[in-house]
Structure formats: C-alpha cells, structure tokens
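[SOLVED] Predicted holo structure with adenosine-5'-triphosphate

Edit: marking solved, answer below. Original request kept for reference. I posted the sequence and ligand SMILES and asked for the 3D complex as structure tokens.
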Amino acid sequence: MTEPRGPSADAAPLLTLRGVVKTFPGVRALDGVELTVRPGEVHCLLGQNGAGKSTLIKILSGVHRPEGGEILWQGQPVSFAGPQAAIRAGIGTIYQELDLVADMTVAENILLGHEPRTGGFVRRGETRARAREVLERLGHGEIPADRPVGRLPAAAQQIVSMARALSREAKLLIMDEPSAVLAHDEVANLFRVIRELKAAGIAVIYISHRLEEIREICDRVTVLKDGRTTAADLPADTPTGRLVDRMTGRSVEHVFPPRPDVVPEGELLRVEGLTRHGEFTDVSFTVGTGEIVGIAGLVGSGRSELLETVYGARRPDAGQVLVDGRRLRPGSIAAAVKAGLGLAPEERKSQALLLGEPVQRNIGLATLDRRSAAGFVRAGAEREAAAAVADRLELRPRDVRRRAGTLSGGNQQKVVVGRWLLGSTRLLLLDEPTRGVDVGARAELYQVIRDLAAEGVGVLLVSSEVPEVLGLADRVLVMREGRIVQQRSARDINEHTVLDLVMAGSLLEGADQ
Amino acid sequence: MLAGRGGSVTELASATTAPAAKTTWWRDDASEPVRRNLGLTGVLVVLVVIGLSTAPNTFLTGGNISNILTQASAIGVITIGMTFVIIGGGIDLSVGSLTALAAVWCTTLSTQSFGAGGMVFTAVVVGTVAGAVNGVLIAYGRMVPFIATLAMMVGAQGLAEKISNKQTQVVNVGSINRLAANDILGIPVLVLIFAVVTAACWVLLNRTTFGRRTVAVGGNAEAARLAGINVRRQTVLLYALSGLCCGIAAIMVVAQSNAGSSGQGVLYELDAIAAAIIGGTSLTGGRGTVIGSLLGVLVFTTITNLFILNNLPTEVQNIVKGAIIVGAVLVQQFQPRELFRRR
Amino acid sequence: MLAGRGGSVTELASATTAPAAKTTWWRDDASEPVRRNLGLTGVLVVLVVIGLSTAPNTFLTGGNISNILTQASAIGVITIGMTFVIIGGGIDLSVGSLTALAAVWCTTLSTQSFGAGGMVFTAVVVGTVAGAVNGVLIAYGRMVPFIATLAMMVGAQGLAEKISNKQTQVVNVGSINRLAANDILGIPVLVLIFAVVTAACWVLLNRTTFGRRTVAVGGNAEAARLAGINVRRQTVLLYALSGLCCGIAAIMVVAQSNAGSSGQGVLYELDAIAAAIIGGTSLTGGRGTVIGSLLGVLVFTTITNLFILNNLPTEVQNIVKGAIIVGAVLVQQFQPRELFRRR
Amino acid sequence: AGALVTGCTSNNVAAPAVTAASVAQPSGKPGKPITIGFSSPAADHGWLAAITADAQARAKLYPEVTFKMVQAGADATAQRAALETLIQEKPDIIVVQPFDGAQLTATGRDAMNAGIPVVNLDREFTDQLAYRLLIQGDNYGLGAAAGHYIGTRLKSAGKSSPIIAEIAGIDSLPLTQARSKGYKDALATHGFSVSHRVAAQFTVDSGQQAAANLLQAAPKLDAIWNHDDDQGVGVLAAISQAHRSEFFMVGGAGSSKAMQLIQADNSVLKATVTYSPTMAGSAVSLARLIANNRGMSDLMDLTVPKQIVLSSETVTKENVAQYLPMGF
Ligand SMILES: Nc1ncnc2c1ncn2[C@@H]1O[C@H](COP(=O)(O)OP(=O)(O)OP(=O)(O)O)[C@@H](O)[C@H]1O
Ligand SMILES: Nc1ncnc2c1ncn2[C@@H]1O[C@H](COP(=O)(O)OP(=O)(O)OP(=O)(O)O)[C@@H](O)[C@H]1O
Ligand SMILES: [Mg+2]
Ligand SMILES: [Mg+2]
C-alpha cells in the first residue's frame, strides 16, 4: 500500500456527514451515511446501482432535504433550502442525468442562473467569452458557444454540463458519473481538469462505476451499500476484490464470461453498403447466429445512427439490411421487430423508458402482443415475465410494480436491456448497454449476453469502453468518421490497435486496409 | 457509529443484510391515481353535503340524481374520448364542433328518412371519420395537435352551419326521441349508454394492448417507436376514437333536445378537457384514468345542478365555480406530509 | 474496463491532440425559428396576393392596412403575453376574461371620474394582480396551469359581470376615446402601442435575464431549479406579465369601442394561443419567438379581413379558415429534405 | 299537428320574402342604383339566421339595390372589424344590427362621419349621432308582455302565490337584462315574482340542460317563460322527458314551430311573444328610402323618422293564425 494521495489526513474537513437519512415512498434510500471530505482531495463514492450515491449528492446540493443526520460544511451545521443555497455556499454539482435546457445555447446554459448582466440585461458578449473560456479549460474549445445545446450529441452535452459546474466559484465540486457518456480520451481530459481543480485547492466528490478510474484519480474512497456507509476513507489502491466485497457483500469472479471456441455457423444479419449522408458511409458487415459483434469507435463516429438504421428507426440513403437473406423493409421498425431484431437504445430516458409506468410494463412494452389474447393483455403473464428478467439482471429493488422513474440510473439501464430478454429476439442491438451499471450487475449482464449468444441469438454491441468490446465480442468492427476501418476477430486485436485505429491519423490504417 | 476521523481506514462489518429496499406497496407512487380519485370522491361528497344542506328537499331525490347523471352523459362520453387523446399525448379541440356536425348531419331530413338506425350510423361514421382526419393531420401531416384540431373545430363548425343552414332541425323519429325519455329499471337509457361507454373504455385503457400503447405513445413517443409500436397508427386511432365518442354524444344530445343544431356542443372541448384534467389526466401525456375523468365530469355537473337548485344568478355562479375549482384541486392535492417539505 | 491496461490508454489519449476537434458535434439547423418565420412570412405573402387578386381596389389601400393592423393590436398584445407564458411552460386560459374584467373595472363611473390616467392605471393593476394570482396558484398551489387559469377565466368573467351588472358601460373620457381615433404620422395610436409592446417584449425575451430564465423554466424546469433559478418566482412573474398585457389590451379594446363590457375578450384565449403556436411557440415550453407570434396574429387578422372584403358568409368563412390553417402549417413545415428522410 | 312539425323550426326560409312583398308596396317605385351594406352578428341561431335571410330576401325585391352583407365572428370586436372594412368600401347606406349597441357606437359614428347614413337595427347605439334611423324590437316590452300574460292567466286561475320560472338567454347580453326586467316588472304589477331563474345560451341543448335542472329545482311549477323559441325546442324536450305538464309555458321571439305548437294546443306551450326578425326587412326597405331621400308614403313627413320601435305581440291560440306567416 502506498500513502494516500492528496492533502494530509488531519486537515480540517470541508464537509462532514453524520447519520444522514432519506426515504422515498417505499424505499429508505439513505440509512445513516457517513462521509468526510477534506479540502483539495478527490473523494470517490462507490456503490452498487441503487446504493444511494445520487441521493446523497442531491442532498448535498440542496435538491433533497434529509430526514435525519447532520451535515457540517466547513465545520458549521447547514441545511440547504434549495439548490440556490448550496450553490451560494460553494457546492457545484454535475448531475447524473443531464440538466440542460435544450433550446438554449451552450453559452447560456453554462452561465444559466448567474449570467453576467447590467440591470437585468444580459451582457451577451461576456457570456460567450466566459463560456468559451470554461470550455477551453475543459479542452473543448471547439464546442460552439452559440449552438442550441439540444443539437449536440450526448457527450458534448455532458461537457457543457461540466462547464456549467466549473463556471461557478466552488469549493466542492460533485461529479455524478461524469464519465458514463464519455469515451476514454474524454475521460483523460476530464482527469486533467480534476487535477487542476485539486491543485487549486478545490475538493471533488467523484462517482463512477469504473474502478480503474478510481485508482487513477482518487485520493480516498467511501463505499455505500443499501444506503449505508460500509467503508470510509479507503486509500485509492485498495485491492479491487476488497472494494467489490464492500460494495456487494460478495466477490465478483470473472468479469467477462469465457468465449466459446466454436466458430458460429450460419449468417443472421447482413448489412450491405449502408449509407446515411453525414452520418456513416458504405457500411457492410455480417453477424452470425450466436455471434457477438462489437463496434468500437469514438463518440460521434456514427455508431448509434448505424444501429438505429439497421433497426429501421432511420431510413438509409443507400444500401440494405438483410436478415436470413431476406431484405428488411427500410425505415420500418415493425419489419425489423418482426424479423426478430431488438434495440436497447443509447439514451434511456428519452429513447427507452416510460418513466411514469411500472417496471413490468416497461419490460413488457416491446413484446406486448406476445402476452396478449385478442388484444387483451395478460397482466399476470407480464408480471411473471418481468419478475424473471428482474431476477436475472439483479434489479434493485426487485419490485417490478415500482415506477421506472424511481429507479436509480443503473437499474433503469437494466430495464432497458431487460426488455429484449423476453420472447424471441434473434438479434440484439445494444447501444452502450452498461452505461452506469455497477461492476456486479455488469458481470451479470455480460453473462446474460453470452448466454443469449449460446442460445443462438446474434448480438451487435456498441460501447465506448474498448475493453468491454474486446472482452465480450467475438468479432470487432472499428468505426471512424462513419466508416468501418477494421473488422477482425477479437482474439487478433488488442486495445492498443483499436485505439490507434479509432484516433484520426493512425499509421496502421494504410497497412490494414 | 462511524466516527473514524483521520486517514485511518475504517471498515464496518460488511453489511450483508439488506435493510433498505423494504417496499410498502400502499405508499408506493403507483397508487397516486387512486389517491387522486379518492380526493375527487371527497370533493364530490362535500358537494353532496352542500346539496343536502342547501336544497334538502330536492337534491337527493331520485329524479334529481338521474337528472344529474343524464346531464353528465353526453359530455361524459366526450370526456372519456378526450381522456384517451390526452393520455396519448395530444389534445382535441374539435369535439364540440364534431358533436355539432354529427348532430346536424344525422338530423337532416334525408337522414331521418332512414330511421333511427340510419341516424345512429350517420352520427357515428361522421364523428369517427372526422376524428380520423384529425389523426392523419397530426400523425402524417406532423401538425401540432392543438392547431390541427383547432382547424377541424373551425372547419367542422362551418360545415355544420352549412348543412343545417343554421336552422334547428327537429327530430321526428320517435325511437330517437324516446332514448332520452325512457329508462330501464329506473335508470335513464342515456345514463346506461354512458355507463357502457365508460366501462368499455376502462377495459380498453387498462386491459388491452390498445390501452398500453396509448400510455406508451403519450408517455414517451420515441421510446414507444423504438419498442416497435406504430406510433402514427395509434395516433390516428386515438383521434378516431375521440371522434367516435363525439358521434355517440351527438346522438345523445339529439335525443335529449329532439333536435339537431350547429349550436350544439359549443364549448364542450373546454368542459371535456377541464373534466379530464381535474380527474388527474396529465396534459403532457402518458397519465390518466377513466374513473378520474368520470369523477371530474360528475363534479362539474353536480356544481351546475347545485347552482340551479339554489337559484344563483349567473355571475355569482361563475365566481363560485372558479373558487370551487381552485378549492377542489387544492383539497385533492392536500398531503399532510408535503406541508413541511419542499419538493 | 480499462483495468490493468489503464496506463497505456491514458498515455495514448493525452499524447494525441484533442481528437474531438475532428468530429462535427452538430448538424446545422440552428436557424429553425428563422426558417419557421420565413415560412409564416411566405403564408402572409400568399394572403396578400389573394387579397390583391380578389379585392384589388380595397385590399392594399392605406386605410385597409391600418385597419388590419388596428384589428391586430389588442389581440396582438395579449398574444405576446401569452407567448411568454407558453415559453415558460404554462398556458393562460384567462386572458379573455381578464381583458373583460380590466375593461369593466376601468370603465365604471367612479373610475372614469379619475380621468384617463386613472382608467389606464386601474386596467393595468387589475390585469397584473389577477395574473399574479394565477401565477401564485400555479407556483405555490401547485395547480396545473390549465385548471388554475380556467378557474380564473370563469371567476373573472363572473366578477366582470357582477361589477358591470351586465350592462355595457359607456366611456365619456375623451382622451381614451381619442386613442383609437387618432394617429401619429399616419400610424394609428393603437398600432403604435402594439409596436412598442412588441419591441419591448422582444428585448425582454432576447436580451434580459428575465427572458433567459423564462426559456430555462419552460425548457427544463428541473434544470432551471438546479441552476439556482427561483422557478416559482419566475412563474408568478410570467403570469403577471400576461395579466399586464391583458390590462393594456383592455384599454385598447375600451378605446376602440368607447365602452367597457363583460362580453369583451370572449374567446381571446383561443385566438392568442392559436396565433402563438402557429408562430412557432411550442406548447411544451422552452421555445418560441415574439416575431413568430406577431406574424401569427397578422396571419389570422389578414384572413378575417380577406373574408370580409370578399363577402363570405360565416359558415364558408369557417370552412375556408380551417383549410387555410391546415395549409399554412403544412406549407410552413415543408422541407424538401424531409420528404425523403424519416426522423 | 304532428304532421305540421317537420324538418326545421322554419320549413321555409324564404317565407319572410312573401310577407316582404306585400308590405313593400307603398314606397315601392324604383330609385337610383344604391348599395346597401348590411352587418349582423354571426351566430348559429335560428333567429339571427332569420334576420339575415329576411334582409337578403327584401333586398332582392329591389332591382336597383346592391346588397353587400358582411359577417364576422360572434363578438363586438369581430363585428367592428367587419364594419370598419365595410366603411372603407363606401356603400350608400349601412344597416347594422350591432352585437352590442354600446360597443359599436363609435363605429356607427365613424360611418356617419364618413357620410354614410346608418340604420341601427334592433340593438340601440348609445349615441344618437351614430345613426340616422333606429328600428328596434322592444326587449323590455317582450318581457313585460310575457309577464302580463302569465300574471293575468294565473290571476284568473285564482292562484295566490304561484311558482313562476324564467329561462333566460345568454345572460351577459344587455338584451337579456332588459327582457328579464320587463318580465319582473310586469309580474310585480300582479303581485307576483320570479321564484326560479336559470340562463341558457340560446342553443337547443343549453335550453334542454337548463330546463332539466330547473324542473328538478322546482318539483311543482305554475308557469315558465322561456326567452327564446330556438332554445325552447330543448326546453320542451326536457319538459316532456321529465313527464311534467302541471304548468304552462310562454315562449319568446315567435318561431313557426312554436306557433304551430300553440295552434295545436297539445303541449305546455300556450303562448309566445313576438320579436320578429322581419324588422330586418323593414330596415332594408327604410334604408332604401333614406338613401333616396324619400319619406314613408303613409306619413306626412318628407323623410323617414328617426326612430321606430316595434311592439311585441302576444301570440295565443286565439290569434295564432294571423301571426303564423311571420314566424321564422
Ligand atoms: N425520486 C425517487 N422516488 C423514489 N425512489 C427513489 C427516488 N430517487 C431514488 N430512489 C430510490 O433510492 C435508491 C437510491 O437511488 P440512487 O439514485 O441514489 O442510487 P445510485 O447509488 O445513484 O445508483 P446508480 O449507480 O444506479 O446511479 C434506489 O432504490 C432508488 O430506487
Ligand atoms: N442531436 C443531434 N443533432 C445533430 N447532429 C447529431 C446529433 N446527434 C448526433 N449527431 C451527429 O451524428 C453523428 C454521430 O453521432 P453519435 O454521437 O450518435 O455517434 P456514436 O458513434 O453513436 O457516438 P456515441 O459514442 O455517442 O454513441 C455525429 O456527426 C454527430 O455530430
Ligand atoms: Mg446514481
Ligand atoms: Mg451513440
């Protein structure tokens, strides 16, 4: 063990939480949390999906009010009446769910609530200038300050969200899974910024399910389980097994299930010359029965669009999609679903979930017809099927009658994937399936995907985490700027090669193609 | 318990028992509509108490109750159709005009010559087709529902005036007129029709794939689309259903007034939307209940009845009605716990 | 997971110059509101061409143009207020009644005795206070805007009837009456007021923190709250602004008719909402422009003027108006690219 | 009588024209070509429809008259827009039935100032400078006539404290207020008062609803006055649905359907008080005379008088035959 990094342990704490309690109808989300954060340290919060991390930070940022316990801010007990109070006290927050106003420009979003102004009039030039300054600092000067935020892809929106938190004078910056929508290069960028903040004496609370990030950036770690602190102030290099044990109460053995040796026979999906102008060009590949094909690439390389086009949610400008050798009607989701395709989309809130509806209905949504007779839904069958999926994916809480909107982020993600585990899906299109999913559940999910493949289901997987693509897929496609630049068996390719291919200006490109 | 200050690594006995996620289903948010309906029932009870104390001799008579229910019938059927549209994420401003159009069309002399069957058929077809046109404009023409149905509201009104030449068309088909005059086992026929429509629509919303799709389309259209639901078709069907309800309501209105006129149905859209919303249907879509809308209609109809029983002048009626709406909603929302909590 | 190989990843990433710079983060259709307004301007041009060909001698005369603009003034001011409310994520059904209430209140004999200043002051205060009450019910009573303003619509109507005793109150204050009769440099005073309100509201929406907060609250109330904006206060202010606009409009209506009556402002809510929406304001909040609403009002007023010039009977007017609305929206939405592409 | 009750409240929209022809004789010789502008509130209501139909039919009788009718919306603002536009077109004379006299007075004055004489039909402007001729029905008299009929009939039936109801039209219109006041005043002269008053919207279904509730509020009634025969269709439907017949009812305005029922004498409707839309035809005829600078042949005066108030007649079984042709 090395010395805990960061400021010395006996510096006066910036923030202390004692016995904080918060309940939602039917759930005790926080049940006596203890946390101590010192100035200038990067403090990580670890915990499974639904452990209460987001709830905790929402209490710190004044969104929720605790029902019990004590919060000491710079030694003084505080109770924030609302987000405004927390902001004024010097706590900035990057929330897990995006908190941007789609129709406002990047600059306006960044300075929302504290616009530079003269007597009620916004000083627009200064707004833009300050926004650019923060974006530069984040290494993203290329994001246009005048563009409405709703027109940026998710990753860019995340950066805007960070820029907003940075634009305020904060003593403590809270980041709730900022890396979930970021690719590795963006994460590196983020870490650079965090180090700068740290150097300036600003404390950071960092939440992530990626343990290696914690090792890289954190000074200390606090682990939550079921709303309680199970370990506080662990050093960053605590062995993974120990961390996982604190989080889950058990150890997670193999992250990636073993790949079968048999070469999949039989072709399920064939994509030929698929093109959508401005998104991707001349994409061709196949997926066999029981084969898992992974697509790696940078954010913005057009992978999501490709999946959606294969699925019929977008109409291609050229090319065709064949299932079992039969051409799918372009632009028809109905045809795709009928042929056995299923898509777990990238944005769970906007693209996948009915947040006001119970989990069981969300899970049953795509296969409604299969559990109905003469137009009548067999609700019992639906509940049973949903409960089985919930068991298989370790949904927390397990109750499938809860509204989907009350689940934690990671558990919502499980519902999205779980929808396609029902019924006779033959080709599963997964777009960032593990975004925000905790280590334990992730392993379960990988196993489920592998099991499905073993049953003969084809899987097309898009992920921004290269190791996930390499570890899970049988075959890897690498996309760059809307083109497939490499197709290879996962055994014959390593992370370094993928990253080289993914980046612009790769030397390997000419050699391989 | 966790006082560990300083850099010391404090570990707790690994918490293997999971005390947290104990769910008590009755406090669960899923029961929110039920609570809301209870609130509305409470409002209704208060109104009944007011009725009993201000008009003790007339309010709770069989005649007055069946009067209230009869008054609620036509607007009730329309509100149920509206509920589906709103749950499906839309709005239908044309219900009043469609009712007028169907009423006028089914009472022209030539339609009347086909007898009651012909009239019912005409009303239902006119309503459904016009509703479907709304749906097509919205689903395929990608018009905002508010504007598309506003255009239909204006246009159908004009068409109804054109057909009737702005004259009130008297109905001479006895069986239609008797619809409103007769009752079965003491229950007026119109009320029975309303009950049947309500029951059927409850089943439709809660037990069928159509109902599920409606909720999905209104709750998150993109998610519904990606789950393989034909959002456009569903949209057309929803507006057609609302139009169908207008057709049924038109027959009821015609039976009640023994006449068809382009002046019928005026402002029904506002009444129907208000009843649905006070019944807990969310204007942003994806949420609402048939029972809530039923209660909403009954509340409004009972208020009107109370006013007349108490002989209130219209201006006072209006002021009091505004106050009652505010009061009803605030009562309905009242949750003791929330008093002490911000959001 | 980068486990184990994390180090190399980081090196690689930091070694390469920010690769994101190569990606295009956006697709260029930021000019959507502009395009939309262009579409509406197109619709207006088409209407002018129709006017020129069907009523060549009267349509483009100075008298008729200032007539159209004058007709647009009062409803225009209300529409601008409504635009703010809708952008802020709400809706205001009470504008018609508030106009009536302000008109009636400012034309009582006792108010008239204070002269023009007293009348203007009364109308503006009545409108603003009633609007603020809407806002309080919505922001603090957590009522759905539709229901809260519906209650206000009904209640204010009753109050207006009560105050005026349902009599039309004639105005004897010369300077108020002259507002509608006079013009400055050939432009009617009412049109000038409308222009000033429009310009001021454009600045308010586009150049002030108030405007930005309106968009934020309507676009994503939760995000606005998290950013430290006082959402409730903003909501109250928005409805008060709408009420203020009703007060101004009441003065304009009173000046035009030399009278105040509880029948004034009937159905203004529908006209204002329709004009705002056709002008590109989104009913879900967060999006809309003052210019679009201005164009929307002009389109509707011009349509009405064309009907009158062409002597159409009302039923035909209605049918044609429905068709024009549909046509206008479809034309406005027309994008050649979209024909070939879904989504 | 059932056979008579066909189709519409008015089976013959053109009927007023026949009456017009007979009345139009005296000053009938053609004059110079003139344009008569006409505006009335647009409303989908039988009586208002009859107003426009009658005016139009009368204008057709005069070959030299160009009839320019503008309709717009259903409120004063919309009508003002219509009239301002009409004024731009400079007709020789304008006949206007304002939505609300007070609110359109300024517009009437504008027309007069622009040199266009105005015939003010039915609803009175508040300023005499705003019109050349006022021809109106008598709303107060309408209510008074109904009140007198009911009062007299109840008196002679020996009732001492009868229960009397009123079903008004749109309550916020000044004309409704005038009618109710006349009714109340007339009843008071008999020592009676209105015990139940409800307001409808001049439409059939609003009449039905108001009446249905009213019948519940008053388990026993002696008399009802319903302001308007069009909404009366609904009122009568509600009465028959409630199986009530212990009272009698008086209508208002005088539709042909109502008169037929009175003639048949098999319903509760025993009388109606006229408020005839034929005043529109008269207004057009008189406008023509004014535009030609002529007087009415039966009067000594060289020009048309400034004001004509039509009286409201009570139509009962005894005299209904005489009024039937005037029904709308
Ligand atoms: N608004 C809410 N209403 C009801 N229950 C809620 C609400 N928000 C959170 N919960 C519940 O509280 C618990 C903690 O959720 P929280 O979002 O804090 O988890 P988390 O640790 O952030 O998980 P994840 O890693 O998946 O984001 C969960 O059981 C969740 O279902
Ligand atoms: N909302 C949007 N509006 C305009 N352009 C967009 C939008 N979303 C994505 N794009 C563009 O589409 C292309 C593909 O973007 P996208 O981020 O979906 O790709 P991806 O490979 O799926 O990345 P990710 O890792 O985020 O899934 C990019 O050129 C991007 O600029
Ligand atoms: Mg979370
Ligand atoms: Mg993507």
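OP edit: The pocket of adenosine-5'-triphosphate (ligand 1) is lined by residues A 24, 27, 29, 47, 49-55, 96, 397, 406-411, 436, 438; B 21 (CB under 6 Å). Thanks to everyone who chimed in.
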